[in-house]
Write a structure and sequence with these properties.
heterotetramer, A: about 230 residues, mainly alpha, globular, B: about 675 residues, 25 helices, about 70% helix
């Protein structure tokens, strides 16, 4: 399937989702916290744009609403909250270099290929184009998860979590033209509450182990001393 | 109405047992309630069960009923046939004696720390469980009652839970009971999968291939064998039985093991259907090993209750030898001989229930009045507690399989069955069975030695410690409880013909044939196979013995001269003191030396803190490190490996999630 | 319908009231009152369902499968509320939490109930997802209620793991919706379970397969399937005990309920392919692994609440295995097991609460001689564990009996690992239990004012179920079985 | 069963009583001769018994009632066992009272009470004797049963008189199993009757005695009964050996003539056996206690071989 058979909007859509994918790679390897937050914000913007484009192409009004919702939530509110948290936790200078960046990037690429290979079997013709976007969003989800695995800093873990959400949202929008409104609202609400709770926990963790390094939270284990 | 008498009185028995449990719950407030009300109710329950069993066997027809309990599609069915009736008798008679005895026994516990409600309540439940197992007619009810039996007896074993050793024993007991229960459940599952459903009729109708039938048989054998205490699955028994209160030990050793035997008979002879001789060989082998190992280990013990527990292993072994012979003969199509072996096994079942109950009650009496379980501390009890001494002697003679008491009859029957092996066609089997007979003979002789040791050391000679010297007569209720059993031991020994005439209905129902000629020569002569093959005139032997004894004692003793007393002669040495007597350990020493390789002996002289040197010996079960410890270690190792999953690092957890996800996706695509 | 709305929204209203209710003294009582009301409503609902099959409307749908879970949930929440009033009082006095904490606790308790009810009664898979996520959000703050480093750590792990899991579940839901797009004439109904179930046969298997993987991993995290279980012992051991009771007794059930609902869809769609039982096999695999691993975990426990949370994992594994096995007998057994396990396990946690109160610690090595200290608590714990270990005459035995026999009939060789697992788990439980209940009293250990009524009720019910299953219940379960596997048992 | 046969049975039982001391005396006499002594007269055992019955019986302070009952039980049990063994005639009702297993049981009963009596007074020697007695018998009893089972299986009956009849009928067959059984039974008999090389009835040397150690405390009539029982046991085993393996000349029916012939024949057989026993006792030396098991295991092995060679070779 060549791009030429697609309408301009669809080409635009693919481009945007490709950029979103790139942002999650950026998130994955970004060492500086603030920069990572910015990358995340950009990702939110891109997802919102994709939503808008889908709405435009499919003429689905309620998607415009959810595009706005995404923009407000993922691109503005949450990044702002994170910023505020980082500042009040005096982490704005915090750098967290990856152990083996090359390895991690390779893993990310492998995940992209894997997810593409996964969605290959869905070969109904009319799905052809959405399929690719599903692959992209699946890759975003997996990379988000990977990020939570490789990053040992609480805030970056939250970023990973949020970028997973972005991936989900992208999938929902691009593949199905948006979930029913009630669900979307519920999801958005949950994400918001989750974000607030994350904020609360940052402070609690900070005051309990005065750091946000999740590796240092290993009191609860079945390991006894002999092994 | 009268033909329903068995069912009614069985129901009454269950009801009474439950009531006794219920009553006992309040003995926390009114301490004497257990003694005054609960224990008599217990005895009554036993009596009712006895009546039920006897009437069922006399009527010889099969009664069934349904309870409003159980699963919607599998209500609890009750069935009372001759086999169940026989085992009801076994349960009933011992429970009756225990109920009488317990009244006096629990008085000693009334001011102890052990909670009486627990003791009484679970005793009642224990009896209920055993009764229901025997009555059950579907696997579900069977399993429920079976586990009820195990669980309640576990609580009784754990009654004195202050010592860690008792807790350990209780744990081991419950664990093995649980495993055994699961294995039995599995066995029933196999039968149910072939027949339709878990009702016993359905299983009877099931047609199994040899392979599956053998699987079911092995499962049942393991499960019931574990409960019955067959070697090598016996290790829980010598731990658990001694630590329970003595009258409960009597129930456990005397009755609960028999319930396991019942389960085995019901499963193998009744439910599986076609029987294969290979099973008989397996049962025979395991039975012989159990008998021999059991009695050898019993010989090595110094704790009287532990010794009795081990001797239970031996007797269960003898019972299973009988059952194995029966299976073997059935499998090779000699029904007549199978019946002989089967009857022998049943006879030994009731016998063991009687004398093992009696002996445990006796041990309880010693514990009650001398507060001592260790043989090495006892001695001369016969003069301090003559009644208990006399009853205990009867128990010892019976269990040592000496005429004219009951133990001899069943062993005699077993020998008779074994001696018919010349009728078999296969030379291998023909040569196998005599070896079993040899083992049986050896077991009998060793059992005699063992109980000679017990009686001689505990009741004869002179007291080896101060508190034993202060032992006193036990209350009449306890004596009565032992007396009942002792009397029955004698009766079953003297009048075997009547017993067998009563027993006959069981093989008639289960195997479709009974002993035809057993009493053909009249009640004086027991001729199981035919008069010219073998005969035993128990009454005549007894009468002669009694006459001579009375004549001797009366004629010489009373009539002419009285016996003067003097110091012991002892080859003219200085008058011996108690510490010069032979100890239990010393008594067993020659046999320990001969059979040394069977035990794990560590023997040596140890330096005491006070500077004196002391001889120390303990004889342990070889099977521990051979069988059980490896399993335990394996589980420990596995657990230690698995625990690594919970590393404590959230990122590791997340990577687990990711890995799982990817693997599953890969599988799916 | 009225009853349904009451059942679902009473807790929400209660939560709002409790959030603002000033006097904390009556908060506990109010909590009980709400739960009682809720329970009554659920009973009425059950009657309605019993009379006219399915109660549906406003994207709610209550059939025989979830109605008994609704009643169970309401019931357990009631008894737990009864237990938690004095218990939380003791916690407050001991100064481990503040008044704000207490208010938070009561509010979140009802909020959690609301999410449970919502998840159980909704017909919309999206809403189901929202509700389950909501349950996480509602409980996560309670886990960290005591503010100890351990509690915060546990809460964080709980939050992160369940958050990720639930996100994956959402992706699965999206795929489901995606698959439904081209099947349903009205695509917006693409998340309505009943609509999907109607057309399950036409859903594209490839998409459904992927979707189910995501949903299984997602909701499976909540069920506590190994190897996504790690949050569970932490959350159970660090949160307040009533929370552990409801988590073990209810949340896991609800997650499993979701998995089963989705399996029904997937089975429908995979029916045509060469691997019609793929979903079942996955469930069996997960169930068996969880069952065995959790059983081994039991052997190396030092914290009493952790131990029982592992036993929850074990039983969840057993149920998952049974649902995966399929077939009327197994399903019936699994449903029954859900019921008895919730009752028994919450009873155990209540008792454990008292036990830890008596000993002043959760460390197994320091809990000793409970029976001598306070017979009620000691025997409660002993009998509860005997029940959960599958000893008759308690109901757990009945369900395990059914499960084993079902396995025996369909997959005989699986019975071996099952039996090994049962034995291992049993040994693991009792080796730790015995020293705690038996033995003599350590000095300075005093009996406490304990309210054993919930335990009594629960164990009584379990005992009853073990001796005989009442008519109405067996019909419920049977109709639920029909619903799930198509054929009933009776 | 007619009254006359009962009468003969009673006569036979009494014969056992009467002849038991004689055999003991005979063995002693032959032994003395072999050792170039003149030895006491054949009737010495009778004199001893008479003397002991006349003497006053004494009991230790520590002795219990069981101590008094034991001699009568031991004596009666042994006598019952003996009288069930065909002595001069077969087909007697007493043989039906007790088959061979019961006989073994009765002997075991006697041994049981003997050992109990040994332990009763509470002396070191008593315990020692009891321990050793049970130890020896524990190994001897199975061997004996095995040996007898060989015959029982051959004759398809555990009833001694029918065994003897069978042997009389088929006396022309040479059976390997019988040879094994016979040798086994001989060894057992030596052990059970407390003869050299297992025990020495003549000695009171503390560390070697077994049987004597148990009856050390007895005196007067009690001792007499014990001794008599021991002599009965010796006779019993003798009769068992000669009559079961070489039954020729026994009376089938109960005609007085046949009975007298039977009596004479059996007595000659017994005299021969006694001579052999005496010879072996002079030739052999008593062995250490812990070499006894070796000998008894040999006996058990032989008996088992007999049984196996029967079930494998002869059926």
């Amino acid at each position: 399937m060549g791009l030429d058979q697609l309408s301009l909007l669809q080409q635009l859509m693919i481009t945007l989702s490709a950029m979103a994918l790139f942002t999650s790679f950026a998130l994955l390897e970004q060492a500086r916290l603030v920069a990572a937050i910015h990358a995340f914000a950009w990702q939110g913007v891109l997802v919102a744009m994709v939503t808008a484009v889908v709405a435009a192409s499919g003429g689905l009004e309620h998607l415009f609403f959810s595009a706005a919702l995404t923009l407000g939530l993922k691109a503005l509110l949450i990044p702002w909250m994170l910023h505020w948290l980082v500042r009040s936790l005096e982490l704005d200078r915090h750098k967290e270099p990856l152990r083996h960046p090359a390895l991690v990037i390779m893993a990310g690429v492998a995940l992209v290929i894997f997810s593409y290979w996964l969605v290959l079997p869905m070969v109904e013709e009319e799905l052809m184009f959405t399929r690719n976007i599903v692959a992209v969003s699946l890759a975003m989800v997996l990379i988000g998860l990977l990020m939570m695995v490789v990053r040992q800093q609480a805030v970056t873990q939250v970023l990973g979590f949020m970028s997973m959400e972005n991936g989900l949202f992208l999938a929902a929008v691009s593949a199905t033209g948006g979930m029913p409104l009630v669900v979307e609202l519920g999801v958005a609400f949950d994400v918001l509450v989750a974000m607030v709770l994350f904020g609360v926990f940052f402070f609690q963790i900070r005051e309990s182990i005065d750091s946000l390094d999740v590796d240092r939270m290993n009191r609860l284990t079945e390991r006894t001393d002999e092994e | 109405m009268v033909e329903l008498l068995p069912l009614w009185s069985a129901g009454l028995a269950v009801g009474l047992a439950l009531t006794s449990a219920l009553v006992a719950l309040f003995s926390g407030r009114v301490v004497s309630l257990l003694r005054i009300l609960a224990m008599p109710l217990f005895a009554l329950a036993g009596l009712a069960a006895l009546v039920a069993g006897l009437s069922a066997m006399v009527q010889g027809d099969i009664l069934t009923a349904q309870l409003p309990l159980g699963l919607p599609w599998l209500p609890w069915r009750v069935r009372l046939d001759a086999l169940a009736g026989f085992f009801l008798c076994v349960i009933g008679v011992v429970s009756f004696a225990v109920g009488i005895y317990g009244g006096g026994y629990v008085r000693g516990l009334e001011h102890g720390r052990d909670s009486l409600p627990v003791l009484g309540g679970f005793s009642g439940l224990f009896l209920t469980g055993m009764l229901l197992v025997v009555l059950a007619d579907d696997a579900f009810m069977f399993m429920v009652s079976w586990e009820l039996m195990s669980l309640s007896s576990y609580f009784l074993v754990a009654l004195h839970h202050d010592q860690a050793a008792n807790r350990r024993a209780a744990f081991l007991y419950l664990l093995m009971a649980h495993v055994g229960g699961l294995s039995i459940l599995l066995g029933y599952g196999v039968l149910a999968a072939f027949g339709d459903g878990f009702a016993f009729e359905a299983m009877r109708s099931s047609e199994l291939t040899f392979g599956w039938a053998s699987v079911a048989f092995v499962l049942a054998f393991i499960g019931f064998g574990m409960k019955a205490g067959l070697v090598p699955l016996h290790v829980w028994l010598p731990e658990a039985h001694p630590v329970a209160p003595s009258h409960i030990s009597a129930l456990m050793s005397g009755v609960m093991l028999k319930v396991a035997v019942y389960g085995f008979i019901r499963f193998v002879f009744d439910l599986i259907g076609e029987i294969h001789w290979q099973w008989g060989v397996a049962v025979l082998a395991v039975g012989s090993i159990s008998a021999l190992m059991g009695v050898l280990y019993a010989l090595m013990q110094q704790d009287i209750k532990r010794l009795l527990a081990y001797s239970s292993v031996e007797n269960i072994g003898i019972i299973f030898i009988g059952l194995g012979l029966a299976l073997l003969f059935l499998g090779t199509g000699h029904k007549m001989l199978a019946v002989v072996a089967f009857v022998a096994a049943l006879y030994h079942t009731i016998n063991h229930a009687l004398f093992k109950g009696l002996l445990f009650l006796g041990a309880g009496a010693i514990l009650h009045s001398a507060h001592e379980r260790n043989l090495e501390q006892m001695g001369g009890l016969l003069r301090r507690m003559p009644w208990t001494g006399a009853f205990f002697l009867i128990g010892c003679i019976s269990i040592a399989a000496l005429p004219p008491f009951n133990g001899f009859v069943s062993e005699w029957l077993t020998f008779q069955a074994a001696l018919q092996s010349w009728q078999l066609d296969s030379g291998v089997l023909r040569s196998l069975i005599p070896i079993t007979a040899a083992v049986l003979a050896l077991t009998g002789a060793l059992a005699a030695a063992c109980f000679l040791k017990v009686y001689g050391v505990a009741f004869l000679g002179r007291a080896r410690s101060r508190h034993v010297r202060r032992a006193r007569q036990v209350p009449p209720s306890m004596r009565a409880g032992q007396g009942v059993l002792a009397l029955l031991c004698l009766l079953l020994g003297v009048l075997p013909t009547f017993v067998i005439a009563l027993l006959n209905v069981v093989p008639q129902q289960i195997l479709g044939q009974g002993l035809i000629q057993a009493t053909s020569q009249g009640w004086l002569w027991l001729t199981p196979i035919s008069p010219e093959t073998a005969s035993y005139g128990a009454p005549l032997v007894t009468i002669t013995l009694a006459l001579m004894l009375i004549a001797g004692l009366w004629l010489f003793g009373r009539g002419i001269r009285r016996v003067k007393r003097c110091d012991a002669w002892d080859s003219g040495f200085a008058p011996p003191n108690p510490r010069m007597q032979y100890t239990a350990t010393a008594f067993a020493q020659p046999i320990r030396r001969v059979f040394g390789l069977l035990f794990h002996i560590d023997e040596g002289v140890k330096l005491q803190p006070d500077g004196r040197r002391r001889y120390q010996l303990n004889v342990n079960d070889r099977l521990w490190e051979l069988l059980y410890l490896p399993v335990a270690r394996g589980v420990e190792r596995a657990a230690r490996q698995v625990v690594r999953l919970q590393s404590g690092n959230v990122r590791t957890y997340l990577s687990w999630t990711l890995a799982t996800l990817l693997v599953l996706l890969w599988i799916m695509a | 319908m009225m009853a349904l709305l009451f059942t679902v929204f009473a807790p929400l209203a209660g939560a709002l009231v409790l959030a603002v209710l000033t006097p904390l003294r009556i908060a506990g009582w109010f909590n009980i009152a709400i739960s009682a009301l809720n329970f009554a409503a659920s009973l009425a609902l059950a009657r309605a369902v019993a009379t006219d099959g399915v109660v549906a409307g406003m994207s709610f749908r209550v059939d025989d499968f979830n109605v008994y879970l609704l009643v169970l949930t309401a019931f357990v929440s009631l008894t737990t509320a009864i237990f938690s009033r004095p218990y939380m009082g003791y916690v407050r006095e001991s100064g481990r939490t503040t008044d704000r904490g207490m208010r938070l606790y009561h509010t979140m308790f009802q909020l959690f109930m609301f999410t449970m009810m919502l998840a159980l009664s909704t017909d919309n898979l999206g809403v189901l997802w929202v509700a389950v996520e909501g349950a996480t959000l509602a409980t996560v703050l309670l886990v960290s209620l005591y503010r100890t480093p351990e509690a915060i750590e546990a809460a964080w792990k709980y939050f992160i793991l369940c958050g990720v899991g639930i996100a994956l579940a959402l992706f699965g839901t999206v795929l489901l919706y995606f698959a439904a797009q081209h099947v349903l004439e009205d695509p917006t109904k693409g998340l309505t379970w009943s609509a999907l179930y109607g057309v399950a046969g036409q859903l594209p298997p490839s998409v459904m397969g992927l979707a189910f993987v995501f949903l299984l991993v997602g909701y499976g995290t909540k069920v506590g399937l190994v190897p996504m279980h790690q949050w569970l012992p932490d959350a159970h051991s660090e949160g307040p005990t009533p929370m552990s009771a409801v988590l073990s007794g209810l949340l896991l059930n609800v997650a499993l309920y979701a998995v089963v609902r989705l399996k029904m869809l997937v089975d429908g769609s995979l029916a045509g392919t060469e691997l019609p039982h793929m979903a079942g096999y996955l469930l069996m695999g997960f169930g068996l692994v969880s069952f065995l691993v959790a059983g081994l975990f039991l052997h190396r426990q030092r914290d009493i609440k952790r131990m029982f949370s592992y036993s929850s994992i074990e039983h969840m594994g057993l149920m998952t295995f049974a649902f995966g096995l399929g077939g009327p007998l197994a399903t019936f057994g699994a449903l029954l097991h859900m019921l008895v396990h919730s009752l028994t396990k919450s009873a155990i946690f209540v008792t454990v609460g008292h036990a830890t109160h008596i000993a002043g610690t959760q460390s197994i090595d320091h809990i000793r001689g409970l029976i001598r200290t306070q017979p009620a608590v000691g025997w409660g714990l002993l009998l509860g564990v005997a029940a959960i270990a599958g000893f008759p005459p308690f109901g757990v035995f009945t369900s395990e009996f059914l499960l084993l026999t079902a396995t025996m009939q369909t997959q005989p060789w699986f019975t071996v690992p099952l039996l090994v697992g049962l034995a291992v788990a049993f040994a693991g439980l009792f080796r730790h239990l015995q020293p705690m209940v038996y033995g003599s009293v350590p000095e300075g250990q005093e009996p406490v004012q304990a309210n054993m009524l919930p335990v009594l009720i629960h164990l009584g019910l379990v005992l009853w179920l073990g001796l005989s299953i009442p008519e109405f219940l067996s019909h419920w379960l049977n109709r639920a079985t029909e619903l799930i596997v198509g054929v009933g048992l009776l | 069963m007619s009254l006359s046969s009962w009468g003969v049975a009673l006569l036979q039982a009494l014969l056992y009583l009467a002849l038991a001391p004689l055999l003991a005396g005979w063995v002693r006499k032959v032994k003395a001769r072999l050792q170039n002594r003149r030895g006491a007269s054949l009737l010495q055992p009778y004199r001893d018994l008479y003397k002991l019955f006349g003497k006053e019986a004494r009991m230790a302070h520590t002795a219990s009632p069981l101590f008094r009952a034991a001699p009568y039980i031991v004596f009666t049990a042994t006598w019952l066992a003996a009288s069930a063994i065909p002595f001069i005639a077969t087909g007697l009702p007493t043989a039906a009272v007790a088959d061979v297993i019961v006989i073994a049981g009765l002997l075991a009963l006697a041994r049981f009470f003997l050992a109990l009596a040994g332990m009763d007074v509470g002396t070191a020697f008593g315990g020692m004797g009891a321990s050793r007695e049970m130890f020896v018998s524990a190994l001897a009893e199975p061997a004996m049963l095995m040996a007898v089972f060989t015959l029982a299986m051959t004759a398809h009956s555990t009833n001694l008189s029918s065994m003897v009849d069978y042997q009389l009928l088929h006396s022309d067959i040479l059976r390997p199993s019988y040879m094994f059984a016979l040798t086994g039974l001989v060894l057992v008999a030596l052990a059970e009757t407390g003869r050299i090389p297992v025990d020495n009835p003549g000695t009171h040397l503390e560390l070697t005695m077994i049987h004597e150690a148990m009856i050390l405390e007895y005196s007067g009539r009690h001792l007499a009964l014990m001794e008599w029982a021991a002599q009965l046991k010796l006779l019993l085993y003798g009769v068992l050996l000669v009559n079961v393996f070489f039954p020729w000349g026994m009376a089938q029916g109960i005609h007085p003539g046949a009975l007298t012939i039977g009596l004479l024949v059996v007595m000659t057989k017994l005299l021969l056996l006694g001579a052999v026993l005496a010879a072996s006792e002079t030739a052999l030396a008593k062995m250490r206690l812990f070499r006894v098991p070796a000998m008894l295991n040999l006996a058990l092995l032989l008996a088992l071989l007999g049984l196996l060679s029967y079930v494998i070779l002869e059926v």
